[in-house]
User: What shape does this take?
Amino acid sequence: MARETRRQRRDARRAEGEQGGGIGRPPRLRTAEAGGPGDGSGGSSFESAPSLAPAGKRRFSFLREVIGELHKVEWPNRAQVIQGTVVVLVACTIVGTFLYVADLVLKPFVQHVLLGQ
Assistant: This one.
């Protein structure tokens, strides 16, 4: 059965309003199958609305989505991993050398001026 369109829902509410039964009706919550912000329906879903699926089914659905997203990841090849590792090691060497030299330069100042030794 196809979902009713916005115009059909509006006409139904208008018909209920003429009969006097449509005022004060609580808003209808969207379910997972009704869609969310990215499904093209134009509506927004409630983030805190409880899912109607059992907990086990939701867990496996989440795992399927995670695996699907991991398949979309562009994993680095061996050359990219080696290049990234070399960049990190060079950066660590440069920062370590800078800190060592700064320590050697500031050590006499700290000992004689700040500590008074």
